[in-house]
Amino acid sequence: MQYVGLLGTSEKIIKIEIEHMKLGLENKHFDTAFQRLSSLEGKTVAITGTTTGTGFSAAEACGKLGANVLLLNRPSNRADIAFALLEATNSNGKFFKIDCDLQCFQSVRSATTEIMARCPAGLDILCNNAGVMALKDIPTADGFDVQMQTNHLSHFLLTKLVFRLLQEAAQKRGEARIVNHSSMARLMVKKLDPKYLEKRGGNLGGDGSRLFIFQGGRWERYGQTKLANAAFTACLHVKLRDKNPKIKAMVAHPGVAETDLQGTAIADGGAGPSGGIGRWLIRQMMKMGQSQQDGAMGIIRCIADPEINSGQFVGPGMGMTALRGPALSYPLERFYNNPYTRDLLWEKSCEAIGEDFVI
Ligand SMILES: NC(=O)c1ccc[n+]([C@@H]2O[C@H](COP(=O)([O-])OP(=O)(O)OC[C@H]3O[C@@H](n4cnc5c(N)ncnc54)[C@H](OP(=O)(O)O)[C@@H]3O)[C@@H](O)[C@H]2O)c1
Fold first, then answer.
1. 105-144, pLDDT tens digit by residue?
2. Which of 84, 79, 81 minimizes the C-alpha distance to 98?
3. Which CATH architecture fits 22-353?
4. Is 223 in the pocket of ligand 1 (CB under 6 A)?
5. Beta pairing class for 125-128 and 94-99
């Protein structure tokens, strides 16, 4: 909140609104879980979406553990400020800013060139964290749904493009990790629908915002992206297990964590965010949730906990009531970890990025 004055006008209005709704929940599990993590000295970690939220907390934790941390963000004041904050408060790690707008495949490609330059000895961990939620039914310039391209397709492309670096790190230092960030919203859709991975942005269910029982288009699309994150992990796990067992794939979810994500869930009626949830209800949900750092512990454990293995799902439980709690590990679920869904996800994602991803 201390840096709000440095933001642009529209950013400032949204930030103040979100900060106003936050309850300031305290950490309950973070410190204990942090003690179990391994040092990341000599390792390089790339994380998407570190301006705020779980990505910021993960970057902070990786820095404390001694890593070189590549911060992959779309260019903004928020990205500059987060970089400055991380540098100023963390003396163990080294931070590097890399422009990467996940709404644009070309931007992901350009980011990869910079990542390669920063990783002469390989990339140890890629954390595909960034996400948007309940946005309007609009296409990206590449023609895909804005939520699907940001949350999954660009991460699929990024993973493909840096895969060689992950192989190099695994060969030199014994292992590399790919960490994805899903959500309880995966449980709201259950079945991956291929149309959401196609070039049909702007024509995928409209702007309906009903969250419970009757799902609106905004939430259906979000749920599909979070199911895709889990299914992508299942695909990677199965392919890597046979061909590249030193590269591990895992996925986490934060329960409900007090981040900036709820900003787009607010029902505003006007031109602003309109995920259809009233401020009162958002506050009630947050009361049942947890702090940003506790929420981030799922991805942080996937990044740095030696006890987490490929094919595990880390979070505060696996059902719809897993809103808070210590980040524990569970097996991947059958509703996406099955040959049909894995093949579908892989085939449609390759089609979307316009190239094969062979492991
Ligand atoms: N918080 C929760 O309760 C919750 C629950 C379930 C799952 N998750 C998942 O957790 C992950 C992190 O979310 P969060 O809760 O930490 O939300 P957040 O505070 O809103 O952070 C989201 C991050 O994603 C970045 N991002 C958005 N669009 C991007 C783009 N086009 N290119 C690059 N970066 C982009 C944002 O950067 P900008 O500043 O540029 O927008 C921000 O750094 C998401 O995948 C989300 O689905 C969160």
1. 999 999 999 999 999 999 999 999 999 998 999 999 999 9
2. 79
3. 3-Layer(aba) Sandwich (3.40)
4. no
5. unpaired
Between the CA of 173 and the centroid of ligand 1 the distance, in Å, is 30
Helices (H) and strands (E) in the chain, counts: 12, 8
Q: What would the pLDDT profile of 161-200 be if each residue is shown by its tens digit?
A: 999 999 999 999 999 999 999 999 999 998 999 999 999 9
Instruction: Count Cα neighbours of 111 within 13 Å in the Cβ-side half-sphere.
Output: 30
Is the shortest distance between the CB of 101 and ligand 1 below 6 Å?
A: yes
DSSP code at position 277: B
Closest of 83, 36, 27 to residue 306, by C-alpha: 36
Residue whose tokens read 């990786």? 62
Query: Long-range CB contacts (< 8 A, 24+ apart) of 276-283?
Result: 276/134, 276/208, 276/209, 276/210, 276/211, 276/216, 276/218, 277/209, 277/211, 279/21, 282/21, 283/21, 283/23
Distance 90 CA to ligand 1 centre (A): 22
Domain ranges within the chain, ordered by starting residue: 22-353
DSSP string spanning 33-45? HHHTPPP-TT-EE
Ligand 1 centroid, distance to 33 Cα (angstroms): 22
Q: Decide whether any atom of ligand 1 lies within 6 Å of the 260 Cβ.
A: yes
The residue whose CA has the least distance to atom 36 of ligand 1 is 49
Distance CA 321, CA 302 (A): 22
pLDDT of residue 2: 44
Nearest CA to ligand 1 atom 7: 183
| pLDDT band at residue 251 using 50, 70 and 90 as cut-offs | very high
Contact at 8 Å (CB) between 48 and 38?
no
* Radius of gyration of the chain, Cα coordinates, nearest whole angstrom: 19
> Atom 1 (ligand 1): residue with closest C-alpha?
257
